[in-house]
Description:
Two copies of one chain form a homodimer. Chain A is an alpha+beta fold. The first copy, chain A, contains nine helices and eight strands.
Amino acid sequence: MKNAAIELLKALSDGTRLDIINILAKQDSYVEQLAATLSLAPATVCYHLKKMEQVGLVTSARSQFYIIYSLNQKAFDRTLRELVICPARVPDADEKYRREVLEHFFRYGKLTTIPVQRKKREIVLQKLLERFAVGIDYTEREVSEILAEYHEDYCTLRREMIACGLMTRDHEIYRVVQKDDKT
Amino acid sequence: MKNAAIELLKALSDGTRLDIINILAKQDSYVEQLAATLSLAPATVCYHLKKMEQVGLVTSARSQFYIIYSLNQKAFDRTLRELVICPARVPDADEKYRREVLEHFFRYGKLTTIPVQRKKREIVLQKLLERFAVGIDYTEREVSEILAEYHEDYCTLRREMIACGLMTRDHEIYRVVQKDDKT
DNA sequence: ATAGTGTTTCGATAATTTTCGAATCACTTA
DNA sequence: TAAGTGATTCGAAAATTATCGAAACACTAT
């Protein structure tokens, strides 16, 4: 089996299946009824329903001659982020602290204030460093523009990037410092 | 143009693109670097990036020789529900009241209490009616099982469905009453 | 300007997905 | 048990999508 998230997203990324979902959102239904509503062959509707059932988007239950399909409401309350972006590292104690710091200083994608404590400031700067590709030369202007997205005092942020050893500056050219250099 | 939601979901439902997203989540990057990391041709990576850029998942900005791609963080904070399930009707005054009532009585997909006021009770029952397909015969047991998912006192719910004229009962067979019968 | 970057488009091919008729299956009712 | 219902699977055709080499493009730097 591949990735469960991909299978779920594939199940959602088809016009016919979205039509079925929206019909079921209003009212439970069954294969023949859906096929008639959508002007499709029952085999086609069945194919789509099975695909969605496999990933937990819908559930089925027989009632006399019919098999009634229902939306699994819980499946729709996930964000794209938690579905798509894998956390990678295990949330250990350091990681927990890191997340708390980031949650405190970032609001709506922007920096509320620049941390005064060095430890916290480094965590925030390390996060901002993700916006800079490794091995790429950035001009001072480019660095400023990206940092300005997060806080009006981009000059301090830029200076601190150098001071904390996260970036190097050489004749107005800024570069990300690779910390995992095996030299 | 088709549906924007479908295009966005299609852009997300591919293993290679998810790989790219997860790399960009850690660090901005550019075509050649991504191609090298993923062992793919630059043309292929470009194809995927363009596809994601069209639906607003990533943004690009030139820096010297390179075009740096970044994740558009805002795009990832949407739930599947708001992406997939279309509201259909315009939120007029009645609809607003309806939503408030539903939000008040439903918690985590279950009914906190059965509304005493007739107007509110009908709104809640109408919502529960979505779980029953039209034109289908349900046994009393089947009706009870579905209603029990929402409140322990499924007997009251079942009785009220009949009392409010939302379902009919005929020799232990329950059916949804179709309100838009043009007779 | 010109040579040299990395990026994008184009065309073709491979791989995957959607669709549906026909056959089969699962279940209900008489 | 047998006949009748709707659901599902199967096989094949049609439609869509992913991949990549080659060529064209956009930009930088000499």
